[in-house]
Each structure stands twice: as C-alpha cells, then as structure tokens.
Amino acid sequence: MAVEAERRRRVAPGRRAAPSFDPAPYSLPSLSRARRLWTVRATAEHESALIFAGLLPFALEAGASLDAQMVIVGMAEDEMRHAAICGNVARRLGGDPRPPATPIIPRSARPIEEQLLRHVVYGNCLTETVNAARLVDAAERARDGFMRAAILELLTDEIRHAKFGFVLLAGWTTWLASHPDVRRALDRFLPDAFAALERTLSGVGASRDGFGAEDLALGSPDPGRLAEVFYRTVEEAVVPGLQRLGLAASEAWRARPRASGEPG
To answer: Which of 104, 126, 156, 236 lies most in the core, judged by the most C-beta atoms within 10 Å?
Structure first.
C-alpha cells in the first residue's frame, strides 16, 4: 500500500536536527498556555497510539489486507513518536505529561467488517482530517523555529493518517456494494459520528482571553479560528470525500444532532 511506503520514507534516518528553543522572547502567560497545549497533546497522542494498536485485531478479523494491517501498526508507531515529540516540547516549557488511561475500543454484535469501517471512518476520515487542518493553520502562523518544526513533524503523519481512512474505505467499496445492509448501517452511524466530532473538535465558544501574537508565534491554535477551520474542513473535505465513496455523508451532516450554539 502506497500509504505504508510513504510512512517508511518518513521515518527513514537522516532527518535534520530540530532547532533549539529560546523562551526569552515570550511572556510567561503565553508560555504557560503553550505548556498546557503540548502537555495535553502528549497524553492525547499516546492515547491515539493505543487506539490504533487496538484496531489491529479488528483488521485481522475483518480480513483486511496485510498492507492495511501494516499501515495500522505504522500509525500506532507514528503516534508513539508524536507522544515523545509533544512530551519533549511540554518538558521544555516546564510541563509534565502523564500517560493516558487505557482506552477501551468498543465492540458490538455488528459484523466485524462494519466495526472496522466505523472506527476508520471516525478515527481517520473525520478526526485525523480535522487534526491535520488545525496543524496546517497553526504551522502557517508559527514563527518560532523549534515549535514550527515540532508541528510539522506531527502534520506530515496526520495528513497520511487521514488519507489512509479514505484509501481503506475505497478498497472496501466492492465489498460494501455486495453488503448493502452494512452500507446502510454506516449511513445511520454518520449523523452521530458527525455530532460527536462537532462536540469534541469544533472549538465553538473557545475563549481568546489573553491570546495574542506571541501565542501565534509559538504555534498555538488561534481560538478565534478553530470553528472556521473545523467547519470548512468537514464541509469541504470530509463530507465530499465520504460522499464520493458512496456514503450518504451530505445528508448525515445536515441531519446530525446539534447542541445549542452550534452552527446549522
């Protein structure tokens, strides 16, 4: 699978050393906000690694290709490396990242193929696509060399993880055509999946108190842009991508349950 070949090139030896970090130009409040961000990221990336590792049995039982299984293992490795990168940044800022609780990968009585595809649609097609877009937005505004290098380390992998979701789903289109009950089940799953994504990642109502030019230079996401980046990414990338692969994503996005304050 091309996605795995891309990952292997990515982790090959010979990367340039990251620049050093100088906190002197920044105020204590902006450094404190950055410390919280990277500390949370370190734990979240560690948890993602465990989730991807937990996806492998689903892929094996569903009969996913060996290439697909290799990518899943590779993504777990990527996320462990991200946890180390984020932990290093957090500690440079005075943070102390903690390991996550052991995540539970839910199983159900539904066909194992459907369960695999649900996890990949939500974890890769939805979540990783939004994460990648957020990192792009932060990287474009980051001026600190150390922080920008760390963001770009994460970004390259997140783009590939998002791409894998759509590639895997495309590889299952023939199987889904012969199992319309599973396709319909995925269509029914999507509204709640979009709602969960919106609740956790939309950034609606995020406070900009104290946020300024120093935070942008440090690569911290602009709270005032979180919602814009989220909705543009979902509506211009995620929904059309899933729709092209035969899922009723446009209808699901419109039909998603909404909390008060979220855009229509």
So the answer is: 126
